[in-house]
Amino acid sequence: MLDEAAVAVATGAASNVVAYLLQGRADALRARLGAVFQRGTAEQRSTALQAVEDDSVALAQHTVTEAAATARWTGFLTAYLAAYPEARTDLEALASAAPPATRTINIGSQYNHGSGTFIGGDNHGGVTVTNGAD
Predict the structure, then answer these.
(1) Distance set, CA 96 to CA 15, 66, 82, 91 (Å)
(2) What is the pLDDT of residue 113?
(3) Pairs from 51-57 (Cβ < 8 Å, separation ≥ 24)
(4) What is the pTM of this model?
């Protein structure tokens, strides 16, 4: 039986696994999980990597919720930690390191007043196009 702290580590690691998947960083996640599951059997590593693929597709297609994927990974990582308590440091590293952001989005607002065309804004009124001749 795992203590509360170990379960919290597995839950944090599971949350970061899902964060990686939601950001489309499955390749980086595979490398991280390879290090985490180095103590396990080949079958456990294979199962983890297949779960990455399955959950990546399911999250992209919205056939599974973020909460359901996190719960699945929490159970998987908790069972792994119970079988290999020495893997706790690897899971703590996964839990504490959120995936780096792949891009940022800046949201702003613009207030236009006066006459003229405003880039990125609405243009109310007519537009006259001339070819240079009167």
Answers:
(1) 10, 19, 20, 9
(2) 61
(3) 51/76, 52/17, 52/21, 52/26, 53/26, 55/17, 55/18, 55/21, 56/21, 56/26
(4) 0.69
Structural tokens at position 55: 């959950």
Q: Which helix (H) or strand (E) holds 33?
A: helix 26-36
Angle, helices 4-22/88-96, rounded to nearest 10 degrees: 50
72, 50 contact by CB (below 8 A)? no
Q: What are phi and psi of 81, to 5 degrees?
A: -65, -35
- Side-chain-side CA neighbours of 43 within 13 Å: the count stands at 0
What value does the CA radius of gyration of the chain take, rounded to a whole number of Å? Answer: 24
Q: How far is CA 75 from the centre of its chain?
A: 19
Taking the C-alpha atoms of residue 60 and residue 53, their distance in angstroms, rounded to an integer, is 11
| Predicted confidence (pLDDT) at residue 125 exceeds the cutoff of 90 | no
What mean pLDDT do residues 35-44 have? 89
